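Data availability (excerpt). All sequences and predicted token strings are deposited with the supplementary files. A representative entry, GH3 auxin-responsive promoter family protein, is shown inline so that the format can be inspected without opening the archive.
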Amino acid sequence: MAIFGSIIKSLIDLKESLTPEGEANKDQEEVLRGLLKKGKNTVFGKYYKFEEILKSDDIRKSFAEQVPYFDYNRIDKEWWHKYHEGEENVTWPGKPPYFALSSGTTGKSSKRIPVTDDMLESIRKAGIKQVSALSNFDLPPDFFEKEIMMLGSSTDLQREGDHKEGEISGISASNIPFWFRGYYKPGEEISKIDEWDERVQKIAENAGNWDIGALSGIPSWMELMLKKVIEHNKLDNIHEIWPNLQVYASGGVAFEPYEKSFEKLWGKPVQVIDTYLASEGFLAIQNRPQTHAMKLIMDNGVYFEFVPFKPEYINQDGSITNDAPVIPLAEVNEKEEYVLLISTVSGAWRYIIGDTIKFTDKEKYEIRITGRTKFFLNVVGSQLSVNKMNDAVKDLEDRFDISIPEFVVAAKRGEDGEYYHFWYLGTEDDRNAEELAEALDDSLMQANKNYKVARSKALKGVKVNLVAPDMFHEWNAVNKKKGGQVKMEKVMNEEKFEEWEVFVKENSGNN
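Structure token line:
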């Protein structure tokens, strides 16, 4: 009998039953008040008069009126760059011991996002909440004795003056508690390997030595790792080497586009649990089965605000207009899309994280990530969000019984001078591109009235090209890097799309 696992499961069940469900609006006001109190003596806090905000009758309203929106470029240019010039107490007390590097989805140059000790503690607490939430899933006691494969970026962080730099997954993994290290795989030595292909090769070689019960990582890279383990060990599926694998904690992007691909890798059902760990903080967890929605963490050092995701409020670079309205938590509506703003214990203030979300259950404060502000295709009035694109691609998968884990799209003029949406679908299945284009166009028209209107006017149609899914991974390798937090952009402007098409043409013979 799995005695140790039974004890752990009992403790988790007990903690979950004794932990009271907080009142979200009250929790959020307390978080904001705590952030303002701690930040009031920083250069940022003095400039934006945090003391006055704290004395106001409505600190949420006063905060929104006093402090402007910041995207990364603005807050780095005006504030965060000062850390690298030796200043302290800039947007948070002291100096950050870490900076999270994030190339995001738009370029090779990295953002450098401060990660404070308070943020590391916030991430640790969120991780405990996620583990505690496992009591809501039907998992046997022996699951809690198995090892966890955390596929993130390298934990070999780079020393830069008085701080270290790396991706958030590497920073988090390098700070895991000592008691957890025995469960954590691939272990310290392999995790420090910076080169993705070399690290995955080592994982494949050592896979038979581990009893993996859970996986954690971004789907695109997790899929590649699992394929490598299967190929290297000459398996039919991953459960032949990890028979006790029961949970996959996905993160970073919606899992649905990868669902069919992963089904080919499993030997038996795996519980997929969504998480929302961004470079700026651990924002939400899935705390119950039978859903892909995640519950916002309201009491853990992150204050949330919501801006309606509408074309008139979105600038071309993905930032939001100064006059965009902010919706308080109490007034959000289900099914509507919002641009997510966060203020955090790392000194991000009214920060546009770049993600768009919608509430699937307002009472439970559960959300889905629907896309990125920069992945909004509206060149000819089509108003397509990534959420709508994902739904249309899922419809294609179901209709044609194929797997399309990756895609990219751009709006540009065709040879006839008319505007088309040009799609590249990543699939290993052989299908007629024209049939897929027609079905994709039909699905989008049925699901999106703005797209249907655009199709009757400036948008001439859809053109589809099929490429191997590996093409997207190699594009990332050339333009950013492989693995870690790197995500493939779904929408490109004409200039970037031209580079993509040249890349595909030059590398098609290799796939």
